[in-house]
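Q: Okay, next protein. This is Linear gramicidin synthase subunit D from Bythopirellula polymerisocia. I've checked the sequence twice, so it should be correct. Can you predict the 3D structure?
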Amino acid sequence: MKKYTLLTGSTGLLGRYLLRDLLLAGKRIAVVVRTSQRQTVQQRIEDILQFWEKDLPSFLSRPIYLSGNITEDFLGLDEKSRQWVSEFCDTIIHSAASLTFLEEPDGEPWKTNVGGTRNVLQLCRDTNIRKLHYVSTAYVCGMREDRVYESELDRGQAFRNDYEKSKLQAEQLIRDDDHIDELTVYRPAVIAGDSQSGYTNTYHGLFLYLKIMCILARNTQPGSDGVRRTEVQLHLTGDEQRNVIPVDWAAAVITHLFCTPEAHGHTFHLAPRVRMTPRQMIEAGCSYFNSTGVEFIGHAEELDLSDGDLQRHAYENSTLYRDYEYSDPEFDTTNLERFAGHLPCPPIDEAMFHRFMKYGEEDNWGKRRLPMARKSFDVAKFLQRAVALSQTTFHDQTSPDQQSRQILGLDLTGPGGGQWTITLNSERIIAVEPGIAATLTSEITLPVELLAAPVQVGSQKFPTDKLKSAKPISTLYAERLFFAALKRSMGDQEGDKINYIPLLHQDRSQPV
């Protein structure tokens, strides 16, 4: 019995990597996402998945889309959606969070981090979900400077900001809830960009410092020797140890632990074996921009803010993270090493810093407009139309025999795809419901455009390089019945455009 996992936070930096990696791992996923002013839930997720598919050899399955809001009761899900969750889901990965450091008029970060977590627990009770995977933060430890163990939480520590304190309260809420039978907690350190591409969609933390370095360097004219002289003093020794991890590694580790049942029920610090230092970051920036002049003066001396705009700009734009400049504890990773020791965190070295800075500049530090997802075939509308036409075609026949019903799971991958349960009787499509049910007669997976091609006129050429990864279409009865039903129900309306005969005769042993 293969159930769905409900994922929150799938549009965030870590969340979009989790969505990709979980789908690649073959997990069935449902996402709770807010609509935006310009896009529906499906369009927002399509943007993300089509972005990933540019660099993948195959199309991804699509999650089930649930329109909601983490800050509302039951995550803003209506009764029909909650009923679907109750029937199809047995686990929640709660990754949604607000990164707001200081309380704002709208109530953040408390509204999302504490209130949103309370709403997740409310939904768990309503739908009888008892397995929860929670993405916390390593900095629930607050301002501790000693070794922090995975088994520890509240030690009476002080906090740098409301974000840390709200995440601790959220984790306490979950641990105190007696409805949850199995709780797995992931505590990542500071999350940076992609270790390979440099990608990020948020310019906080490490990327804020990289952006400041870029602004200072690019606004300083090179001297006659081609070197930029950015005379800036930093209130650091340069050798402070910093816990920073690439986002792709964090997602890969969480996905591995999620797919490892023996790891469930534990708490994991996602922290690097080799920590970076401010000196490494500055030296990488100097080599990238061909600049010099940054001076580490230690913690004791006073900065001279009257000495030029560069110094003042660097100081004023980094105040939000100043408390992190002076302390960063060592995180115990005993559980992490036990269950994911074969996945070491890649050290953030000069080459990776350069990838971060290169991507930041290409992205104009978050101001670049990325292309929207390409318009795709509306599969849901097509299937519902097939049901309606099938009912019209068979309106004069008796009710279908329950014993002759076939239940087909349909997983259409790629743009516009999705997952459905198709109920068939003879060559009649009785019903189409979102999600693949646990009990099926048969299941089929294929790219959505392969199904859509016979009914599309003037459609874009199908990217055949993706076809090699599609699963062969078998000659099982339910699958043959489905295509026969599509042809039967749509044929009179669409004429010669409907031709699923090649699919009906496709042999399992041959590629699509």
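A: Here is a summary of the prediction. The longest strand covers residues 405-413. Residues 457-464, 467-476, 492-512 have pLDDT under 50 and may be disordered.
Q: Noted. On to the next one.
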